[in-house]
Structure formats: C-alpha cells, structure tokens
Design goal:
Blueprint: H1 5-35, H2 44-51, H3 59-64, E1 69-74, H4 89-99, E2 103-109, H5 115-118, H6 127-142, E3 149-153, H7 159-168, E4 175-177, H8 189-200, H9 206-216, H10 228-238, H11 254-270, H12 280-283, H13 286-298, H14 305-315, H15 322-331, H16 346-352, H17 354-364, E5 389-393, E6 396-400, E7 425-430, E8 433-438, E9 448-456, H18 459-467, E10 475-479, H19 484-487, H20 495-504, E11 509-513, E12 526-531, E13 548-552, E14 557-560, H21 564-569, H22 588-593, H23 603-611
Parallel strand pairs: 1-2, 1-3, 3-4, 9-10, 10-11, 11-12
Antiparallel strand pairs: 5-6, 7-8, 8-12, 9-13, 13-14
Helix pairs in contact: 1-15, 4-11, 6-7, 7-14, 8-9, 8-20, 10-13, 13-14
Cofactor: [4Fe-4S] cluster
Protein name: Phosphogluconate dehydratase
Family: Belongs to the IlvD/Edd family.
Length: about 600
C-alpha cells in the first residue's frame, strides 16, 4: 500500500526543515569513517593499550585488525530489574563473536537509574539529565577508536535515548541495540491501581501497599506496564535497530540468548570490514524518526518520548517538533491498549501478536516507511523483515510470520479496526504555552476540562492539600517550576492516585504542569511539558489561584480565561531556590543550559549545536 498522505507530508516537512543540519551530520560521519580514530590509525603505543587486557584467544585477532571488533556499551547494574540480566551478556557476546571470527570488548558502562525507585524523591531531579550523562558516557566509551561496530545494552527510560544519542555521534559505526526483555507478569495491573488508590485514601497501610508492589515488580526484567522503557523497545523495533522481535522476549530463556547471539553475528556482517556496511547514522534518518513517532502513537506509548524523539533526532541532524507529532497523531490509529491504557501488560501484548503483528498491520495500511535501512532487513522494503516473530526450532533461531489476526482484540487490533482513529497524543496550546496531552488513556468525556485553578510549587504541596480536603471540587491543579531549568523536570507520578480519587468522586479534575508524567500517564487529563516553562518568564508563572483554565484536547486549547490586559500586566511568581542534596547541585550546569522540552530539554545538544 502507498504511504499515508499525512505521514508523507510530515516526513517531507521534516526533511526540508532538517536539510542543512542533516547534511552537516552526514558529512561528519563520512569523515569519521574515512579519517577519524580507528585501530589502523592508532600509534603502536595507543593500540597496545587497547588490547593489553584482552583475553588470550581474542588478542591476536584484535591486534591484526582484520575482523570486526564490537564495542559493547552496557547499562548493567544488579539493583535494577531491567538491567540485572545484562550481567553475563559481555561474557556470552565474546563467545558469540568468536563463532563468526569477530571479537568483542566492553567499551564502557553508562549509569542506569530507575524512575520507579526515585519516583517522588529528590533523585528524580537527576532523572532527565541522566540521559545526557548516558550520552556523554557512551561517547567516552566509543572514543577510543578500537571498534568497527557497537552493541548497546540498555532498556529503560533515559537509557535507550541516551545510548542512541551518544552512539549517533559515532554514526559511522554499525550499531544494534540488544534488549534484555520484560519480567513475567505479576499482580494484575488493575489490582495494583486499586490498592494504590486505597492507600492514597488512607484505607490501607504501608505494609499492604508494599506487598502489592512487590508482587508487581518481582523478578529480573523490565517492568511490564507500557511505560517509557517498553515504549523504547517498540520504537527501536519500528526503526529497525533490533534483531526482529527481540523486544518482549523474557530474560533467562533460550530464545532470549539466541536473539543476543544473532545480534552479535549480525554486527560481524554489517561492520565496516564487511560487504554489507550499515552505519547507524544512515539507519537513523528522517523516515526512521517518523516510524518511531508512528509506533509510539499507534501503541499509546509514553509521553516522555515527546521529549526524547526530538532529542534523538537532533543527534542525527534531524529536526522534529510537536506540530509534527500532532499531525501524525491525527493520521495514526490507536491499535494497542496496554496498561495503563488497558488491562493487560506487555507480555499479554506479545501473546496477542506483539511487535510482528503491529509492524505488519501498520505497513499494510501505509502507516510506516518500509524502505528504511534496518540492521537486519533485506530487499526494497527491509522493514517487512522485521514484521516477524522469533521462535526456536530444535534449539535453532528462526523467524516466522506473525498471526494473521490478533489473538486478543481487547489488547491489540489491526489498523483497519482500531480502538480509536487517532494516535492519542495531542498538542494543546494557548496563552499558557504549548503542552502534550495524552488522550489514549483518558475517557473522551474528560478531554475538555474548564475549572478554577489551584497553584502549587511541587507535588508534595498537592498531596498535603488533598489530604486536608482542599481539592474536593472541580479543579485544575497547576504544578509549576518543574521544568528542566527549574529542577530537572521530574515525573510527577505521586499525583496520579490522589487526582484519580478526586475524579472517581465525580469531580472534573485536570493537571497542568511544566513537569513530566511519563508512560504511566493515566486516566486523569493532563497538559504536561508546558513550554516555555515557568522559570525564566513562561506564562505558567502568571497563573493565580482562582483563575479559570480551559484545557481541551478536542480543540487543542490550553488557556487561562483571564482578560488579556490583566494577564499581560501580572507580575511573575518567584521560583523557589534550587534544592541541594542527593547530587542535585552537580547538575546545575545541565539545568542552566537546558533548552525547551519541545527541543528535547537538553543542555548537551544545545551546546553541541553551537559548535557544530
């Protein structure tokens, strides 16, 4: 089928806007391939340092520099469930590389923090900027010039975008992202949500809450709800940067191991010493970025990617904005309902047809660019080779066609019969700025909220007011000074149970904030990532208690219904001083240099473009 006209038009718009920056980027990676740092250009002293500690069976091959040496960049730590499985990966990957005459070395590690652990705590103010730190760490790892290909080991919220941003600055290297897979399903999500709300209402204690949470997050592997981590995996699949179907295979299984083996073998084939050279910077083009956005919208993925997609794109010289996402959302149907947008988790999604079915139905309906350069696909439409699901036949990895029809249409549907005709992520704008509204998780009768405002400077103040009964009414809760410059733009998950309780009591409730809500954005209507942020003159700094705000995903409106002359004459609220402790002061440079959320909320990319 021919490409959808809206998707085609948005892609053309991005290509035209990006023409000068993309051209400079492609010139950069071509120069790095031809004249940059590499094994054959290292001095003997430099080179000897690079293989001094290599295992004896690898040392001659690395020294000879005649076969691909794969640089492994790993986000392993054993405190986080998603990244704990990576502990043995480098050891295994070296064995897999030897099977095809290649070698592998751990180039470096990157931090991997868990928003689930830091949620609502001071550490969340480091979360978004950990992405820039990961990108910088990836660049340090790959800067040694010892590698002809790279394997990126990471899964969760900021880790995949950070790895990709860093690796794209070495875009001459063929690169595959190697996931670890989700943990098996635990406590049903609806039950978890019910218990959280009971705790918010004071009807159960901490021990009951902890028991439920421990039954939900119970073993190694990615959390199973469809948040930022699993949205990452979806996007890497539709961008063709995984081995096909690798995203949602559970850890510790033979199939998981064989997919990792296949990724290593494939890197040996597409490395720059081979005949099928596929550099990352060529794989990640404007069409692949549009595919990432389409996959996100079609599956109701994390709102964090309204920030991450522009940042990842900028690292490859591509410029995409929220207008593009909004236009794409108007053309892309919602075909998946995975918790918090549905009752089942990613394991249920996988069982219903998963990634293979999703890519195939989107391709069949002209909603993805099938002609992108992928790490594994062949022919004129390589992405079609990613519309398959992996399996084992007598312990041998094979790929099969996905099911012809969804095996659970409460979870996953064909694009011809979607849950809703649009992708569920809207741009709202007005005199309060521009923001993201995730409609896919919100009942349609709540897409428009008009109510008086109550203004807060942090989420703890909101919870105090909730517990005191001060929010028992129709209300738009404004939480400001939560943007990247103010405090690093933390997620505000702590608000979800309390606001959900108010909504369940029959009140018309909405949240407006320059902070984030992420993939756990739920049933309460919310305008998030408000830009420009309150700190530094954004209009949220003018809002006052009692002002009436209109938030409408139907009309794309985010406005304070205040007389224009009065609005312009108002003084801006004073921001609270930056908080200290938990390392937050170390990130002052990132906050000071951060650009707007719509551009990716990055100090690093902002500075990079000033010298590029």
């Amino acid at each position: 089928m021919s490409l959808n006209s809206t998707i085609s038009a948005v892609t053309d718009r991005i290509i035209e806007r990006s023409r000068p920056t993309r051209s400079r980027y492609l010139d950069l990676i071509a120069a790095q391939r031809e004249t940059g740092v590499s094994r054959t250009r290292l001095s003997c002293g430099n080179f000897a340092h690079g293989f001094a500690a290599a295992e004896e069976e690898d040392k001659p091959a690395i020294r000879a520099a005649r076969s691909t040496n794969i640089g492994i960049v790993t986000a392993y730590n054993d405190m986080l469930s998603a990244h704990a499985p990576y502990g043995r990966y480098p050891e295994q990957m070296k064995l897999f590389a030897r099977e095809v005459g290649a070698t592998a070395q751990v180039a470096g590690g990157v931090p991997a923090m868990c928003d689930g652990v830091t949620q609502g705590l001071p550490g969340m103010e480091l979360s978004l900027f950990s992405r820039d730190t990961i990108a910088l760490s990836t660049a340090v790892a790959l800067s040694h010039g010892m590698f002809e290909a790279a394997a990126l080991l990471g899964i969760c919220d900021k880790i995949v975008p950070g790895l990709l941003i860093g690796a794209l600055r070495f875009g001459h290297l063929p690169t595959i992202l190697v996931p670890g897979g989700p943990m098996p399903s635990g406590l049903p999500n609806k039950e978890k949500q019910r218990i959280r709300q009971l705790y918010a209402e004071g009807k159960i204690g901490r021990e009951e809450l902890l028991e439920a949470e421990a039954a939900s997050y119970h073993s190694a592997g990615t959390c199973t709800f469809y948040g930022t981590a699993n949205s990452n995996q979806m996007m890497m699949e539709v961008m063709g940067l995984h081995m096909p179907g690798a995203a949602f295979v559970n850890p510790g299984t033979k199939l998981r191991q064989e997919l990792t083996r296949a990724a290593v073998h494939r890197l040996s084939e597409i490395g720059w010493n081979g005949n099928d050279y596929r550099p990352l910077g060529r794989c990640v083009d404007e069409r692949a970025i549009v595919n990432a956005a389409v996959g996100l919208l079609a599956t109701g993925g994390s709102t964090n990617h309204a920030i991450h997609i522009p940042a990842m794109a900028r690292a490859a010289g591509i410029v995409i904005d929220w207008e593009d996402l909004d236009r794409l959302s108007s053309a892309v149907p919602l075909i998946a309902r995975v918790y918090p947008n549905g009752s089942g988790d990613v394991n249920h999604f996988q069982a219903a047809g998963g990634i293979g079915f999703t890519i195939r139905t989107l391709l069949d309906n002209g909603l993805l660019h099938g002609d992108i350069l992928t790490v594994a696909g062949e022919g004129e439409a390589p992405l079609a080779d990613h519309a398959r699901e992996p399996a084992l036949e007598e312990d041998r990895l094979v790929w099969r066609a996905p099911p012809e029809a969804s095996l659970d249409e409460t979870m996953l549907r064909p694009a011809s019969n979607p849950f809703q005709p649009d992708g569920g992520m809207r741009l709202v704008k007005g005199n309060l700025g521009r923001a993201t509204f995730k409609t896919s998780a919100v009942e349609r009768d709540r897409w428009t909220i008009e109510a008086p405002v109550r203004v807060f400077a942090d989420q703890d103040e909101v919870l105090q007011a909730f517990k005191a009964g001060e929010l028992e009414r129709d209300v738009v809760v404004v939480v400001r000074f939560q943007g990247p410059k103010a405090n690093g733009m933390p997620e505000l998950h702590k608000l979800t149970p309390a606001l959900g309780v108010l909504q369940d009591r029959g009140f018309r409730v909405a949240l407006v904030t320059d902070g984030r809500m992420s993939g756990a954005s739920g049933k309460v209507p919310a305008a998030i990532h408000v830009s420009p942020e309150a700190l530094g003159g954004g209009p949220l700094a003018r809002i006052r208690d009692g002002d009436v705000v209109r938030l409408s995903a139907e009309t794309g409106e985010l406005s304070a219904l205040v007389d224009a002359a009065e609005w312009e004459s108002r003084a801006e609220a004073v921001a609270p001083p930056p908080a200290l402790g938990t390392g937050r002061e170390l990130f002052a440079m990132f906050r000071a240099g951060a650009d707007e959320a719509e551009r990716g909320a990055s100090a690093m990319l902002h500075a990079m473009e000033m010298v590029a």
